[in-house]
Fold this sequence. Notes:
- With 493 residues, the chain is α+β, with helices and mostly antiparallel strands.
- 32% of the residues lie in helices and 22% in strands.
- It is globular, with a radius of gyration of 29 Å.
- Strands 8, 13, 16, 17, 18, 19, 20 and 21 form an eight-stranded mixed β-sheet that branches.
- It contains 15 helices and 21 strands.
Amino acid sequence: MSENVCQHFRDYYKEFGLKTFELVHAFFSVSTTTDARRRKALSCLCYTCGGSGPQLFSCLHCIFFGCKGSHMFDHQKINKHHIALELSYGMIYCNSCKDYMYHPECQTIAEVHLKNEAISLNKSLSWRPWAPNDVDINLLLANPKRRHTSGKSTIGLRGLMNLGSTCFMNCIVQALIHTPLLRDYFFAERHECTVKMSTKCLVCEMSRVFQEFYSGTRAPLSLHRLLHLIWTHARHLAGYEQQDAHEFFIATLDVLHRHCKNAKSEVEKAERNKDKKDISKDKEGVTNPAHCTCIIDQIFTGRLQSDVVCQSCKGVSTTIDPFWDISLDLGEVPHGSGVPKSLIDCLERFTRAEHLGSSSKIKCGSCKVYQESTKQLSMHTLPIVASFHLKRFEHSSQIDKKISTFISFPFELDMKPFMSKVNDSLGDYMYSLYAVINHVGSIDKGHFTAFVRHHKDVWVKCDDHMISTATLKDVLNSEGYMLFYHKKVLEYE
């Protein structure tokens, strides 16, 4: 597509302006009103064959609709009408130059029409490609150096220094660094923070870590500032003893979630009260990610459905709760099907109906008395990143032990069998593995490592400061403590 308009469009613009473009685009490209949609349905047909497409053009010199190909192009050639509007995507086309083109005024008009269409249809604005503003363009011109990453590139790979039993942190950071949408968010500098708040903000520090990883430097990186912030905002993790990687993962998401959520209000607050002391305090414990649109919840939050069925009247009580990950039992279930051998076994057990028994009766809303019931969990809404925690550590009053049973897990995972309701119009339910956290050793003395997918078919093992190549077979044969899967198809609202 041309970056500049051709001479034919300049001549057209000088003679006719953009009024015709504005009217045709509003009625026959995006249809901003009910009347526009009615007119489009009745009138938007090829004047040669009477067909509706699949791709129609509208001549901007006269009243003529034509199919892509000879019906439209013959009209333009015979009448010397050079400029047309492609109606499916609202693009300007010059028949003489045989090329589409971009015009900033037309783009501004189109953006207004798209917003009006969304309001008229009560829907969210459709996805639009990134369009650089003047600031973006000046930055790109001032910084012409670009980094090209190939399949063999090591950019984005760095070892992490062990600061004293901090392997639990290092492996989780490696998994987060290799989460594609999180990387894109930080590279786009979407996070805003006040100068005063930024020194305390985990999101700002995580943004710095991403920049460090992709700077091209190969020396191991120290995460002392990130560790200090985690200690500050999740005090139960403070100290130099070995911590649990899963607990660190949940705590990190929680702090990132809170700081993302509060960042905008903090900026606005700072602008209103520049000379006032910030007295806000962080709360301990995990916050509720429900109904939050921060980047953490856009990526990691799913919805878990719980259906409780009364065994007397068969009435169903349904609750839906948010989750950041799914913890799966590995131990043997009494009167069950034994020990699971695969991730699929674990998920089938997790979503299997469970009889609550006479000792756990629940008051039925229909019967108005306590009745025996069954409870079944299922996935109501899937997250972009599905993370699974295999509960290998058992703690009891008698003994603490680690379950080292091998649990197989696939490279590609279909979550459709575990859904509350399947809607094929939303795309598929397939996920691809991109990170695995492993624990070696005993429950008292062990070590965490990570496998991460660096490129499409390139896997590496991250063991603190050491980065080594790995194969998919190495990954799938590992013990597996935490598994990270990324959705293969993303749906835009």
